[in-house]
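User: Sorry, folds how?
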Amino acid sequence: MGKAKTIITISGVFILLFSYGSMSDTIDHSGGSNSDQTNSKSIQTTTKSAQTASKTNQTKTKSTQTVSKSKQTKTKSAQTGSKSAPAKSKPIQKSPKSEPDKKIKDSLSVTIGAQTWALANLNVSTFRNGDTIPEAKTNKDWVTAGETGKPAWCYYNNDPANGLRYGKLYNWYAVNDPRELAPDGWILSSDADWAKLTYYLGGQEVAGNKMKSTSGWIDGNNGTNETGFIGLPGGYRVENGIFKNFGSIGTWWSWTESKALSAIDHYLALSNSLGRSSSPKQRGESVRCLRN
């Protein structure tokens, strides 16, 4: 009996094993097994891990984007700083004081033939070295300067408004002063310079009309100003201090001396000619410079 029980038990085990194998085959044919479910769970777990990793990567990406945005913010701040920097770096420029009596600008010149003339009559109140040229307003001051051979200047009728258009009138002692009346880069005109100008313009009889301004002359005696010289009728001051011929004569000193008490000047009048004369050194006349 004991052996029979043992045989029955072993038989039961074989039957169970056979039944389990049959069940496994049935599961395989029906679409999955426990092992596959386990694998599926593993795959799902892996997928979840991958998703978690993806989320981690997304988190990193977001962090990277955050860092990138932070960099962009820094870049914008840097750009904002760079935009504001020039405003700080620009020095405050003070407008220089206007000193029309200190120099003649290169742009205020005209070339006639081989010569370059200033467009305006000289209007300085100092010599090239900075020394002041005395202004002689009264007739007495003007006469005293002439008699003692001292340099002097004035406006026509002692009116500063005339200086803006016609410049200053100088006695010849200012023209001949060793401290030099012409600004740096310019020279005073000589008698020979005026002769060259006259010859280039076709001679004395026609040169004046080409040099005279197109307005400002009395009785309509204006010129064509085809040379660009802009010769204005600024008048002059005689030895006793009296002013004369404003609107009808413009006269300019040369630095050329003719006699002990006189020097050569050139003038425009109501005719078409360019005149030449020898005048007392005490006289007050305009001065026109040449480019050096």
In short: The helical segments are 2-30, 34-89, 139-148, 160-166, 172-175, 191-200, 204-211. DSSP finds seven helices and eleven strands in the chain.
